[in-house]
Design brief:
Helix content: 25-40%
Largest sheet: 6 strands, mixed
Number of helices: 17
Radius of gyration: 22 Å
Number of strands: 18
Length: about 400
């Protein structure tokens, strides 16, 4: 007997928000950026540290070359532009051929603080591109350090470089001169000596010299221009590919100058994704009355938003953001994000001073979409390449290794 057709009736089911436990968490404690320097200096005998990334063998001289914006997936997608980096992929993370993770958000200020302090975002207290200062109620840009606040009040922990220097390790940073006196450098990367060098080639050569400067050495060097090309033109652009080719040569140049008993680790602060310029992909907070309702401040960045509610409106804002964005973003309350482990290991909690810096609502992008703010963030809203969330393209970073 043929059954009669079932005729659909009524309204379609309401959209189902993304389950928060589907967000791919950073590998805090075993394979994140915050775990790298503690592992290296533990192998050099610095007291108070343990090897968190178990796959890394100790070396007397360690050099970390951090390339801003060089995500793991971007290397995999460009073998022709990066032949040397590609040749190192199989040996990433101590020969496992695997990446490590950034932290959340996957953004420069947060990541550099995690690298330099060896602490998770919920500890060091730089939980995004911009975050509310609970003492003033203002948004603070933690990359540009505006408005000014005392660096050591904002981030009081000593850096790994400082502790290594006190333990007798020859410690040096080799970077662009413009970064020497920035607050972010002071709270994340200070310790030992800073050496400003303008060109990438000069940095590689001097980093190798500094590495040879002690029986036990810890050297950090940095290159930012790849990230700049990605933001301006996108990771699918000729400009970005040209920068990647240059970076590939820089890494090889440094690797070929390593002194004996050295290990070079090439890593990054985040990856990047290109977002189309259309209304579906770029949701303008400044033009969206639903998202603005009950919101006092919008922080973070397009793919990792901190939303600070008007007092008393926290629950309503969370409900609204989940209804509007929940299929495209993981949308969590502050308490949920902390408990799940977005800002540190689940169950560890966060420092009390950091609590009010995290949004009442935290939204992390799942799809290729961003929340712009065309009026208040015109520069950031015009970027082609962006980052911040927990997707593999943003979160996974290399830990390529060369030993001498």
């Amino acid at each position: 007997m043929v059954q009669p057709a079932v005729v659909a009736s009524g309204w379609p089911d309401d959209p189902v928000p993304l389950a928060l436990d589907t967000a791919p968490l950073p590998a805090y404690g075993s394979g994140s950026l915050a775990d790298l320097l503690p592992t290296l200096v533990a192998g050099q005998g610095v007291p108070g540290f343990e090897a968190r990334i178990s796959e890394l063998a100790p070396a007397d001289r360690n050099c970390v070359f951090l390339i801003d914006g060089l995500g793991w997936e971007q290397i995999l997608a460009h073998p022709d532009e990066a032949p040397y980096l590609t040749s190192l992929l199989a040996g990433s993370r101590g020969g496992t051929g695997r990446p490590i993770t950034a932290g959340f958000p996957a953004t420069t200020a947060t990541s550099l603080a995690s690298v330099g302090t060896g602490r998770f975002p919920g500890e060091h207290g730089l939980p995004g591109y911009t975050a509310r200062n609970p003492a003033t109620g203002e948004l603070m840009n933690q990359l540009r350090w505006k408005p000014w606040t005392s660096p050591r009040v904002w981030q009081p922990y000593p850096t790994v470089f400082e502790l290594a220097h006190r333990a007798g390790i020859h410690t040096a940073q080799v970077s662009s001169p413009i970064f020497q006196d920035t607050p972010l450098t002071k709270i994340a990367l200070s310790g030992g000596s800073f050496h400003g060098r303008l060109s990438g080639e000069e940095r590689m050569d001097f980093a190798a010299e500094q590495l040879a400067g002690g029986d036990r050495s810890l050297v950090y060097t940095y290159y930012s221009e790849l990230d700049g090309a990605g933001h301006r033109f996108g990771v699918d652009s000729d400009a970005w590919r040209g920068q990647l080719m240059f970076v590939d040569r820089l890494v090889q140049r440094l690797a070929e100058q390593l002194p004996p008993r050295s290990a070079l680790y090439v890593t990054a602060d985040h990856g990047m994704v290109d977002i189309p310029f259309d209304e579906q992909s770029r949701i303008d907070f400044d033009e969206d009355w639903e998202l603005r309702a009950g919101v006092a401040l919008l922080g973070g960045e397009g793919r990792a938003r901190h939303v600070y509610a008007v007092p008393g409106a926290e629950a309503d804002v969370l409900t609204c953001w989940r209804e509007v964005l929940g299929e495209q973003f993981w949308v969590a309350s502050r308490e949920e994000a902390v408990a799940l482990g977005w800002f540190g290991r689940p169950g560890d909690g966060i420092d009390e001073r950091v609590h009010g810096r995290i949004g009442d609502v935290v939204a992390a992008a799942h799809d290729d979409v961003i929340i712009t703010a065309s009026v208040n963030e015109p520069h950031e809203s015009a970027m082609v390449g962006v980052h911040g969330s927990m997707t593999p393209a943003e979160q996974l970073v290399p830990l390529l290794e060369v030993r001498s």
